[in-house]
Amino acid sequence: MAQVLDIVTTAAILYVVAAGLLIIFGVMKIINFAHGGFITIGGYSALAVTQLGWTPWASFGFAFAVGCLCGMIIERLVVRPLYARPLDAILATWGLGIIIGQVITLAFGREVQFVQAPIRGAIDALGASYSQYRLLLVPAAIGLALVLTWVLNGTRLGLETRAVIMNENLARGLGINSGLVRFITFSLGSGLASLAGAFITPLSSVDPNMGVPWLVGAFMLVLVSGVSLLSLAIACVVLGGAQVLVSTYGNPILGGLTIVVLAALILRLRPAGFARE
Amino acid sequence: MPESQVPAVVAASDAPNGRSSAQLRAVIAVSLIALALIAIAPYVLPMFMVNSLIRAFLYAAVALTVDILWGYTGILTFGQSAFFGIGAYATGLIFTHLGFSPQHALLAFGAAVVVAALVAAVVGWLSFYHGASPLYASVVTLVLPIVVAQILYSGGEFTGSSSGLSGFESFDISIETWFRIAGAFLVVLTALAWFFVRSDAGRVLVAIRENEARCEYLGINVSRVKILLMIACALIAAIAGYAFAGVQMVVAPEYAGFVFGTELIIWVALGGRGTLIGPVIGTLAIDVSTAYLSGNLPFVWKLIIGIAFVAVIVALPQGLMPPVASALRRLHRRASPQAPAFVPSLQAMTAEHFAGLSGSAQHAIEVRDVRKHFGSLKVLEGITFSARRGELLSLVGPNGAGKTTLIRCIADGGERSEGAILINDRDIARRPPYACVALGVGRKFQAANVFETLSVAEALRIARTRLQRPLFSARAPTLEVPNAVVKVLQATGLDQRLGIEVRHLSHGQKQALELAMVLALEPGVVLLDEPTAGLTRPERALIGQILTELAAQEGLCILLVEHDLDFVREISSRVIVLHQGQIVLDGTVAEVVGSELVRDIYAGGGSMRSAGARA
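^ inputs. structure came back:
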């Protein structure tokens, strides 16, 4: 039973981590390799909240706000000139990730530090004793998915965003300010990455390179999901589930490779991945 | 059939051979100076510098392979570190577990190149297939170093896990000698790469970067070229890794990892992708300064590199080398301005038949009950017709009738949903475009589809790659093409512009160049999708005349999609009318022009005239 919980919570964590990357990729067709850097920013935002002595619950909102703000600045300075060069955008955002990591190292030191979790301890769930915080991430991921779905399908901004996703030139011709849509998308995606960083830090610890391992996994999940929030959920359950099973019955190192290897093979056999063609 | 005209020798540059041998001398001279510097440097430089430079030389050799893959061929690879790591671990593992001996050194070398080649072949097979996106290849090269590093981490005692292997016995060679070996390796490699990328074969790589689809339709097996290149680059990286482990006597998983893979890209990008020298200088400068500065300003230095990298990618995508080189050139303004581009002399071939023509074939094209649907949308339904050599068959019909789809199905075996297509009586089955070219198909696209940054002569050379193996070390001094190609070039004035970059040509000349490239394939069946779209009236008449001559004199079977009924009437020997995915009429020009049915179809979808204006 604990394994089912492992799979569900792992999928939830992956979903939270990959959502911001998916939004940016979907709208801007740009792979944001600074995603790992933004996750790190979120982790250190949570650390700052702990150090300031605020309630740990504040770390989520704080991390989201810091991520959005950094995303806005970076979109203006770096990402905007690269819209027409998607492969270069990967490289420039990877460079940004390096910059973020070094600035954080200079500000906070390079050692591993710990963040206070908002809730601690275990509860009995499905007949097993399980970490409360991990379980909390499941409703958090579902809530995030619902909010994003509502923003995309229930608001004016979402409508314009979907128009840009489908046909940017046509959208621009219809008077949609696609530059603004991109700006908002990038800062929102950055904020989500940072929020994800705040979500995952109570599970382990923070260090200046904490985002990089998550970046690669999130990148692969986004590639197999296309641009759909629903197929991202499916990908997280399937690949996250495979990761848990391989780690349990194989070994943890192979488990760590499960997502990247499976995703690469899936893309080879079916370039659309989990998305409908 | 008239004898081919005088072998036209036109527009040869003043002394192509003299110029290339001057370049050869210059490169050899620079290489010799570099080798001499490397020979004396260990006497002059401090030991720490010598040590750092050995490492930097080997890293630069790997950076060179990244430049060839990414800068020249357009494959953004994160994975060259994995091959470096494979080479290093082959040495480390064998020397640690079997001990050092000359035999074991050879064994380690063999293991390094064999494993690297096998892994590269698998990675290449995964990454490069017909229809693969360039991003997918990058994804696979990103996964590779992650997998290799994780395997090394999980190797326990055998691979030394995260601390790697160290303290093993290695070659009994002094540091000074290692310095000279590594330096000479880098200089020779750079010189060879310099000749290679400027050779006819090297131009093929640039053509793939510029327009991969056009290369496929010129009969080049792009996936195979990329896989072979991947293997060659993997071997070089593995040899660098082998030497690295031999001299440093330490290996660690980081050397095979993803972060090192991205560092290689940073060095190449800063130095200047696609310049060879830039990445070498970039790697040497950054790696040596890192060795000196990372002690004093550990995090700030890496921050500076990160900022420089982002700034270069955003503002100077070609890296620091091109601006530096042009500044140097301005300083040294020589008496003679920049030398003109190398232009081979054009020669008409004397061969009697096109390679793609088969005299014994009953039909040039045979299309049997071909269907194409996208889901429930039927684009082609039960298309059946055949055509013989010498026929000039026009395909007309309103927009959306399925004309271009039919052309696409004939040129790419993977396109149709059902039915069979035979070229020269041979079934194309599910062959990809390059293999259809081998059967005798040549396809010209609707919009001029050429190589913008290549010269006219280079573009024609690419089109000849399938039939004439390109040189790997130099430019061939002559360009031999079928007589028909010479005619097209002469008629459109392109024979006087062989050295001009294609992007400077007019729209009409680009269309003519693409037609010439298709004819240079010596096809038996030529598929032309609106060859006259956007051309002026005289240009159109000229193309029409060339096409009728080709059909009548060379025996080509030409299938033409055209909206301009006047043009169709002038040149066709037969017309097929498509409507809503079906053939509604197949007959002579007179039959089609007089047909009530055709008039009705066009009356429903606008007149032929207005359809033609849409192009």
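Chain B has two domains: 17-331, 365-470+477-614. Residues 56 and 284 of chain B are 5 Å apart (CA to CA).
thumbs up if we can close this ticket
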